[in-house]
Amino acid sequence: MISQPGRGKTHLAAALGIQACQMGKKVRFYRVSDLITQLLEAREEKLLIHMKKSLSALELLVLDELGYVPASKAGGELFFDVISQAYIGKEERIQKQKKYDKSKWGFFFQAKA
């Protein structure tokens, strides 16, 4: 879902996640910045494989605020890896708070200097 801030994307995504839970689906909701932070911490603590396995077991991964906070290159790479694994046979909902320009995808994964 893509639109301006304050249009109810988070509320709708949470509702979809709750509905999926009520249907017995394995669901997690993350703000993208929080997920990236957790992935980086898991890598430092040598728990990344465990976290990725846990994420890949989900039937629905709801991601909120993509592009709202820039990520480091390492964080962006870990996030991309999780998304690419989730995409294979899974559903995901990606939300962002900015106008989406496909040519600027790399912006979301680079920290500002």
Model description:
It is a single chain. The protein is α/β, with parallel strands linked by helices and 113 residues long. It has a single domain, classed as Rossmann fold (3-Layer(aba) Sandwich), CATH 3.40.50. It is 45% helix and 16% strand. It has four helices and three strands, in the order αβααβαβ. The chain has helices spanning 9-22, 32-44, 48-56, 73-87, and strands spanning 27-31, 60-66, 91-96. Strands 1-2-3 form a three-stranded parallel beta sheet, with helices on both faces. α2 packs across α3 and α2 (32-44) crosses α4. The radius of gyration is 14 Å and the shape is globular. The model is unreliable at 90-94 (pLDDT under 50).
Write the layout of secondary structure elements.
Blueprint: H1 9-22, E1 27-31, H2 32-44, H3 48-56, E2 60-66, H4 73-87, E3 91-96
Parallel strand pairs: 1-2, 2-3
Helix pairs in contact: 2-3, 2-4
Feature tags:
single chain; 113 residues; alpha/beta; Rossmann fold; 3-stranded parallel β-sheet; 4 helices; 3 strands; 16% strand
Instruction: State the name of the first-level CATH class.
Output: Alpha Beta
- Residues in helices, as a percent range: 40-55%
Strand order of the largest sheet: 1-2-3
Overall form: globular
How much is the average pLDDT?
81
Instruction: Please state the structural category.
Output: alpha/beta
CATH architecture: 3-Layer(aba) Sandwich
What is the tally of helical segments? 4
- For the record, the count of structural domains works out to 1
Instruction: Kindly report the CATH topology.
Output: Rossmann fold
Uncertain residue segments: 90-94
Q: Which percent band covers the strand fraction? A: 15-25%
Q: What is the H/E string?
A: HEHHEHE
CATH-wise, what's the superfamily? P-loop containing nucleotide triphosphate hydrolases
Q: How many E-type strands?
A: 3
Distance between the termini: 29 Å
Biggest sheet details = 3 strands, parallel
From the alpha carbons, calculate the radius of gyration and give it in angstroms.
Answer: 14 Å
